[in-house]
Amino acid sequence: MSDTSNQGQTGAGGTTGASASTSGEGRGQFPDLTAILSQFKLPGVDLQAIMESRKADFEALMKANTLAIQGAQKIAEKQAELFRASLNDLAELLRQAPQAAQDPAGTMGKQSEVVQAAISRALNSMKEYAEVTRKSQADAFEVVSQRARQNIAELRNLLQRSPGSS
Questions:
Q1: Could you give the CA distance from residue 103 to residue 87 in angstroms, rounded to a whole number?
Q2: d(CA 35, CA 161)
Q3: pTM reported for the whole predicted model
Q4: Average pLDDT, stretch 113-141?
Q5: Structure-derived torsion over alpha carbons of residues 155, 159, 165, 166, reported in degrees to the nearest 10
């Protein structure tokens, strides 16, 4: 397993560590950090558990960020839909312009309907944007909150084991 975790992390000289950290890839630093910390062998401290817990923290933040990005993408898609619909409405009004000269009263009624439909769509879109934003934020918050609850439980377990190990 350690052979596959170090693949792709070697520098031009075939070494890990300094070359991995100078290349801008942070991934090469974690195995070295684990190796360095394991040399100290502090009594009552499970370094592997600490590293796994921090990894879980990072994964939770990545998931929350992904959810936030997905929400932003949905909003952008809905904005594009609204923009296309508005352009279609404008094109329809422009197509009716020659007829407006012949029947101004009828054209005004049609234009009024188009404007009302556009306003209605805009209001509905605003409601959808608000709902997408709320859901995206709630989902991201739940991921981070769940990880915070897990951290509290881990800390409680650590504190409960601590008096017995002294």
A1: 24
A2: 25
A3: 0.56
A4: 87
A5: 130
